[in-house]
Amino acid sequence: MSSVAKIGVLTGGGDAPGLNAVIRAVVKAAFNSGIEVVGLEDSFDGLLDSARTRTLTPKDVTGILRLGGTILGTTNKGNPFDYPVDGLDGHVDYSERVVETFNKMQLDALVVIGGDGTLQIAHQFYLMGIPVVGVPKTIDNDIWGTTSCFGFDTAVSFAADAIDRLHTTAEAHKRIMVVEVMGRYAGWIALHAGAAGGADVILIPEIAYDVDKVAAHLRERERLGAKFSIVVVAEGAKPQGGAVTLVAQAHAGHVERLGGIGALVAAQLHEKTGKETRYVVLGHLQRGGAPTAFDRVLATRFGGKAVELLRRGVFGRMVANNPPDIVPIPLADVIGKTKTVPIDYDLLKTARAIGVSFGD
Ligand code: F6P
């Protein structure tokens, strides 16, 4: 029997389809092991105030496997070590308060489901003595140490479907269609959705592009008989020698918001090719709605493994997909790193081999 009798679970950072599937697996596996689960609302905010918690039993998670979002709520603004305070032009360190609440609630361990930022916070609390198990989450698929994250497959499936739809209208009007997808530091969504949707150009953060080369590629396609083209661009893609396109600068408690590159590239391609051009920003649609079967399964495996680890007393680890297994890896090895698309990734090479331009 585990010495862990009561655990907290929270979701932090931007949501990803599959969060609820992890929560469900954690609650059911823990319950069946005699462990009580407390849901903490809105990331670590739930531990700043013990009123923002609720006990979760299998009954409370019935029917959530297929739901997007998170029943616990989330935020990417509440880092307890650097908490933005309204009306005060600064931040406060509430970390001791979190530890106090954790102890007051008589929790034995925490399951923290989140992206790189949330996992860094989890690791800091682990170093302060809180037994933590991390579960990686991001639609961007850029967390170090795991081959995949739940949410990514859902985002790619949605984006590929959008590209399919754009194909028919692009063809009808003989236009260039530019599709902006998410991907802040890594081009996994753009590359996979672009490959699945048959894009002609894919622009990703890992490969700085030259818009003249993109335009030349599209003109050459036209010379060879193509009547339309599809360009997929990750929000974090950068022109050679240039910077990312932002809709908002960083300010207190917020990272800068990316966006606008689709419109920019579309305008430039219209100017340089003379072709009619339109753009679409898929934005948060990629994060909404039901997770795919693949993401439900991965999320369930992560949740089950997290409970297995805490029952064994293994803490300070993140569960990671390392096919065919889900394995624990030290949080310390993961944080602060980004899993970008390797330049020798076979899909990237194959995309080039079948005529996709990366604008370089
Ligand atoms: O990290 C996931 C992600 O969806 C990024 O692709 C995107 O840049 C960011 O979150 C958007 O965050 P927000 O929901 O705060 O606008």
Which key phrases capture this entry?
about 350 residues; alpha/beta; Rossmann fold; 2 domains; seven-stranded mixed sheet; four-stranded parallel sheet; 10 helices; binds 6-O-phosphono-beta-D-fructofuranose
Notes on the protein architecture:
- With 360 residues, the chain is an alpha/beta fold.
- The chain folds into two domains: 6-150 and 291-323, Rossmann fold, CATH 3.40.50; 155-288 and 342-353, 3-Layer(aba) Sandwich (Rossmann fold).
- It is 35% helix and 19% strand.
- Helix 1 (19-32) runs parallel beside helix 8 (293-312).
So how many helices? 10
The first-level CATH class name of the largest domain: Alpha Beta
Mean pLDDT: 95
Overall 3D shape? elongated
Q: What's the β-strand tally?
A: 15
Under CATH, the topology of the largest domain can be stated as: Rossmann fold
Query: Which H/E pattern describes the elements?
Result: EHEEEEHEHEHEHEHEEEHEHEEHH
- Based on the coordinates given, report the CATH architecture of the largest domain: 3-Layer(aba) Sandwich
Helix content: 25-40%
Low-confidence stretches: none
Q: Specify the biggest β-sheet.
A: 7 strands, mixed
Structural class: alpha/beta
Distance between the termini: 58 Å
Hetero groups in this structure are: 6-O-phosphono-beta-D-fructofuranose
The radius of gyration over CA amounts to 22 Å
Strand order of the largest sheet: 3-2-1-6-7-14-15
DSSP strand (E) fraction?
15-25%
Indicate how many domains the architecture comprises. 2
